[in-house]
Amino acid sequence: MSLTLYSGDLSPYSARVRMQIYAKGITDIEIARPATFGTPQFRKDYPIGRIPVLEGDGEPMAESEVIAEYLEERYPEPSMLGATPRETAQIRTLARIGDIYIMNNMFMLSPQSRADTRNQGIVDLLGGQVVRNIKALDKLIGEDGFACSGRLTLADCAIVPGLFLVENVLPSVGMDNPVPSTPKVAAYWAAIQQQAPAAKVLEELHRGLEERRELIRSGVFQKMMAKAAADMAAAEASPD
After folding, report:
1. Is 38 within 8 Å of 44 (Cβ atoms)?
2. CB 149 within 8 A of CB 79
3. Is the pLDDT of residue 240 over 70?
Protein backbone atom coordinates (compact mmCIF):
# COMPACT_ATOMS: atom_id res chain seq x y z
CA MET A 1 0.00 0.00 0.00
CA SER A 2 1.40 3.39 -0.98
CA LEU A 3 1.97 5.99 1.72
CA THR A 4 1.72 9.79 1.75
CA LEU A 5 3.59 12.00 4.18
CA TYR A 6 1.76 15.28 4.65
CA SER A 7 4.53 17.77 5.23
CA GLY A 8 5.65 21.37 4.80
CA ASP A 9 9.07 22.78 3.99
CA LEU A 10 9.31 24.86 7.17
CA SER A 11 7.85 22.27 9.54
CA PRO A 12 10.82 21.04 11.63
CA TYR A 13 8.91 17.96 12.70
CA SER A 14 8.14 17.09 9.09
CA ALA A 15 11.79 17.74 8.24
CA ARG A 16 12.79 15.15 10.80
CA VAL A 17 10.80 12.47 8.98
CA ARG A 18 11.84 13.66 5.52
CA MET A 19 15.51 13.37 6.48
CA GLN A 20 14.89 9.80 7.61
CA ILE A 21 13.18 9.01 4.30
CA TYR A 22 16.09 10.48 2.33
CA ALA A 23 18.71 8.71 4.44
CA LYS A 24 16.99 5.34 4.04
CA GLY A 25 16.48 5.83 0.31
CA ILE A 26 12.72 5.24 0.55
CA THR A 27 11.11 5.99 -2.81
CA ASP A 28 7.52 4.82 -2.40
CA ILE A 29 6.32 7.53 0.00
CA GLU A 30 4.76 10.59 -1.61
CA ILE A 31 5.62 13.83 0.19
CA ALA A 32 2.89 16.46 -0.18
CA ARG A 33 1.54 19.56 1.51
CA PRO A 34 -2.07 18.97 2.60
CA ALA A 35 -4.47 21.22 0.70
CA THR A 36 -6.61 21.81 3.80
CA PHE A 37 -3.77 22.53 6.25
CA GLY A 38 -4.67 25.30 8.70
CA THR A 39 -8.40 24.90 8.16
CA PRO A 40 -11.15 23.38 10.32
CA GLN A 41 -11.40 20.55 7.79
CA PHE A 42 -7.79 19.56 8.41
CA ARG A 43 -8.39 19.43 12.16
CA LYS A 44 -11.56 17.43 11.55
CA ASP A 45 -9.66 14.91 9.44
CA TYR A 46 -6.54 14.91 11.65
CA PRO A 47 -7.57 15.91 15.21
CA ILE A 48 -4.11 16.94 16.44
CA GLY A 49 -4.13 19.51 13.63
CA ARG A 50 -0.41 19.45 12.96
CA ILE A 51 2.00 18.01 10.42
CA PRO A 52 3.54 15.60 9.70
CA VAL A 53 0.79 13.07 9.14
CA LEU A 54 1.41 9.71 7.49
CA GLU A 55 -1.55 8.33 5.58
CA GLY A 56 -2.18 5.19 3.59
CA ASP A 57 -1.86 2.25 5.99
CA GLY A 58 -4.95 2.21 8.16
CA GLU A 59 -5.78 5.22 10.31
CA PRO A 60 -3.75 8.40 9.68
CA MET A 61 -0.66 8.53 11.85
CA ALA A 62 0.47 11.72 13.58
CA GLU A 63 3.53 12.75 15.61
CA SER A 64 6.99 12.73 14.07
CA GLU A 65 8.56 10.38 16.61
CA VAL A 66 5.78 7.83 16.15
CA ILE A 67 6.06 8.06 12.36
CA ALA A 68 9.85 7.72 12.54
CA GLU A 69 9.63 4.58 14.64
CA TYR A 70 6.95 3.13 12.36
CA LEU A 71 9.04 3.77 9.25
CA GLU A 72 12.04 2.18 10.96
CA GLU A 73 10.02 -1.01 11.46
CA ARG A 74 8.46 -0.94 8.00
CA TYR A 75 11.76 -0.16 6.23
CA PRO A 76 14.39 -1.74 8.51
CA GLU A 77 17.34 -1.37 6.13
CA PRO A 78 19.53 0.56 6.40
CA SER A 79 18.93 0.76 10.13
CA MET A 80 18.93 4.16 11.77
CA LEU A 81 18.78 2.62 15.23
CA GLY A 82 21.57 0.94 17.17
CA ALA A 83 23.29 -2.42 16.80
CA THR A 84 22.57 -3.06 20.50
CA PRO A 85 19.77 -2.02 22.87
CA ARG A 86 22.18 0.32 24.67
CA GLU A 87 23.22 2.01 21.44
CA THR A 88 19.57 2.44 20.47
CA ALA A 89 18.88 4.01 23.86
CA GLN A 90 21.63 6.57 23.24
CA ILE A 91 20.22 7.36 19.79
CA ARG A 92 16.76 7.87 21.27
CA THR A 93 18.12 10.05 24.08
CA LEU A 94 19.82 12.39 21.61
CA ALA A 95 16.72 12.40 19.41
CA ARG A 96 14.61 13.48 22.39
CA ILE A 97 17.04 16.30 23.14
CA GLY A 98 16.66 17.46 19.54
CA ASP A 99 12.89 17.06 19.52
CA ILE A 100 11.66 18.03 22.98
CA TYR A 101 14.40 20.16 24.51
CA ILE A 102 15.48 22.10 21.43
CA MET A 103 12.92 21.86 18.61
CA ASN A 104 9.82 22.13 20.77
CA ASN A 105 11.11 25.15 22.70
CA MET A 106 12.12 26.82 19.44
CA PHE A 107 8.72 26.05 17.90
CA MET A 108 6.95 27.77 20.81
CA LEU A 109 9.44 30.64 20.78
CA SER A 110 9.27 31.39 17.05
CA PRO A 111 6.02 33.46 17.14
CA GLN A 112 7.92 36.02 19.22
CA SER A 113 10.11 36.71 16.19
CA ARG A 114 7.14 38.25 14.37
CA ALA A 115 5.19 39.67 17.32
CA ASP A 116 4.39 43.39 17.26
CA THR A 117 5.28 43.52 20.95
CA ARG A 118 7.70 40.83 22.06
CA ASN A 119 6.99 39.11 25.38
CA GLN A 120 10.43 39.17 26.96
CA GLY A 121 9.37 36.73 29.66
CA ILE A 122 8.61 34.10 27.04
CA VAL A 123 11.86 34.83 25.23
CA ASP A 124 13.89 34.54 28.43
CA LEU A 125 12.16 31.33 29.51
CA LEU A 126 12.15 29.40 26.23
CA GLY A 127 15.36 30.88 24.85
CA GLY A 128 17.09 30.15 28.13
CA GLN A 129 15.97 26.53 27.92
CA VAL A 130 17.37 26.27 24.40
CA VAL A 131 20.75 27.65 25.45
CA ARG A 132 20.87 25.33 28.43
CA ASN A 133 20.04 22.31 26.32
CA ILE A 134 22.56 23.14 23.59
CA LYS A 135 25.16 23.05 26.38
CA ALA A 136 23.83 19.67 27.49
CA LEU A 137 23.99 18.42 23.91
CA ASP A 138 27.61 19.53 23.76
CA LYS A 139 28.43 17.01 26.49
CA LEU A 140 26.67 14.12 24.77
CA ILE A 141 27.07 14.52 21.02
CA GLY A 142 29.55 12.50 18.99
CA GLU A 143 32.87 13.91 17.81
CA ASP A 144 33.07 12.15 14.43
CA GLY A 145 30.58 14.21 12.45
CA PHE A 146 27.50 12.27 13.57
CA ALA A 147 25.32 12.54 16.66
CA CYS A 148 26.35 9.03 17.72
CA SER A 149 27.23 5.56 16.39
CA GLY A 150 29.49 6.95 13.66
CA ARG A 151 26.71 7.04 11.07
CA LEU A 152 23.39 8.72 10.32
CA THR A 153 20.74 7.75 12.85
CA LEU A 154 17.36 8.95 14.04
CA ALA A 155 19.27 11.23 16.42
CA ASP A 156 20.64 13.25 13.51
CA CYS A 157 17.18 13.48 11.97
CA ALA A 158 15.85 15.20 15.10
CA ILE A 159 18.88 17.37 15.87
CA VAL A 160 19.35 18.86 12.38
CA PRO A 161 15.97 20.68 12.21
CA GLY A 162 16.41 21.80 15.80
CA LEU A 163 19.79 23.39 15.12
CA PHE A 164 18.38 24.99 11.97
CA LEU A 165 15.80 26.79 14.13
CA VAL A 166 18.42 27.78 16.69
CA GLU A 167 20.68 29.27 14.03
CA ASN A 168 17.96 31.03 12.03
CA VAL A 169 15.26 31.96 14.54
CA LEU A 170 16.93 32.54 17.90
CA PRO A 171 18.78 35.70 16.75
CA SER A 172 15.47 37.13 15.49
CA VAL A 173 14.21 37.29 19.09
CA GLY A 174 17.32 39.13 20.26
CA MET A 175 19.34 36.16 21.52
CA ASP A 176 22.78 35.04 20.42
CA ASN A 177 23.11 31.71 18.66
CA PRO A 178 24.76 29.45 21.30
CA VAL A 179 26.10 26.90 18.80
CA PRO A 180 29.44 28.66 18.04
CA SER A 181 30.26 28.74 21.77
CA THR A 182 29.73 24.98 22.18
CA PRO A 183 32.73 23.39 20.42
CA LYS A 184 31.41 19.85 19.96
CA VAL A 185 28.00 21.00 18.72
CA ALA A 186 29.64 23.55 16.40
CA ALA A 187 31.92 20.88 14.91
CA TYR A 188 29.00 18.49 14.53
CA TRP A 189 26.84 21.17 12.87
CA ALA A 190 29.53 21.98 10.31
CA ALA A 191 30.08 18.29 9.52
CA ILE A 192 26.51 17.03 9.39
CA GLN A 193 25.53 19.62 6.80
CA GLN A 194 27.88 17.86 4.36
CA GLN A 195 25.75 14.70 4.54
CA ALA A 196 23.36 14.55 1.56
CA PRO A 197 20.13 13.81 3.51
CA ALA A 198 20.84 16.68 5.91
CA ALA A 199 21.81 19.05 3.10
CA LYS A 200 18.59 18.25 1.24
CA VAL A 201 16.33 18.82 4.22
CA LEU A 202 18.17 22.02 5.16
CA GLU A 203 17.66 23.33 1.63
CA GLU A 204 13.93 22.70 2.05
CA LEU A 205 13.88 24.38 5.47
CA HIS A 206 15.68 27.46 4.13
CA ARG A 207 13.28 27.61 1.19
CA GLY A 208 10.32 27.46 3.56
CA LEU A 209 11.85 30.13 5.79
CA GLU A 210 12.33 32.52 2.87
CA GLU A 211 8.77 31.94 1.71
CA ARG A 212 7.49 32.61 5.23
CA ARG A 213 9.55 35.78 5.57
CA GLU A 214 8.23 37.08 2.26
CA LEU A 215 4.65 36.39 3.34
CA ILE A 216 5.30 38.28 6.58
CA ARG A 217 6.92 41.22 4.76
CA SER A 218 3.94 41.48 2.42
CA GLY A 219 1.38 41.20 5.23
CA VAL A 220 -0.19 38.11 3.64
CA PHE A 221 0.88 35.80 6.47
CA GLN A 222 -0.83 37.91 9.13
CA LYS A 223 -4.07 37.88 7.12
CA MET A 224 -3.81 34.11 6.63
CA MET A 225 -3.33 33.56 10.35
CA ALA A 226 -6.23 35.84 11.25
CA LYS A 227 -8.54 34.06 8.82
CA ALA A 228 -7.45 30.64 10.06
CA ALA A 229 -8.09 31.66 13.66
CA ALA A 230 -11.54 33.05 12.81
CA ASP A 231 -12.48 29.95 10.83
CA MET A 232 -11.31 27.69 13.66
CA ALA A 233 -13.25 29.67 16.25
CA ALA A 234 -16.39 29.53 14.12
CA ALA A 235 -16.00 25.77 13.63
CA GLU A 236 -15.53 25.19 17.36
CA ALA A 237 -18.61 27.31 18.14
CA SER A 238 -20.76 25.42 15.65
CA PRO A 239 -23.02 22.73 17.16
CA ASP A 240 -22.18 20.49 14.21
Report:
1. no
2. no
3. no
